[in-house]
Design a protein that fits this description.
It contains five helices and no strands. It is mostly helical.
Length: 94
């Protein structure tokens, strides 16, 4: 049996950026899209894997975690805090 094709790095970044901007809810588009534009290209492979895992979560859970209405999974909590801080600073014009 042959191995599955490995996604090329450029294709992965393009897919992730598109998924960040086309979530399903406009609110999450506006949180994840700008963050992806600003940070994806500079992420380590481990952080890219983490962002990919985050993109697999549903918007309602992500929003609840970001707003502090529910506890985020430990493996995503710190990363979500970074993204939330970026979104807050962006809205404040910082």
């Amino acid at each position: 049996m042959s191995e599955p094709l490995k996604e090329m790095p450029e294709a992965r970044l393009k897919r992730m950026r598109m998924r960040a901007w086309r979530r399903g809810t406009k609110e999450m588009d506006l949180v994840l899209g700008p963050w992806a534009d600003a940070h994806l290209a500079g992420l380590s492979p481990e952080r890219l894997d983490l962002f990919d895992a985050l993109l697999a979560e549903n918007d309602q859970d992500l929003m609840a975690w970001l707003l502090g209405n529910a506890k985020a999974p430990p493996e995503l909590a710190g990363f979500l805090a970074e993204i939330g801080n970026f979104a807050q600073n962006r809205l404040r014009g910082v």
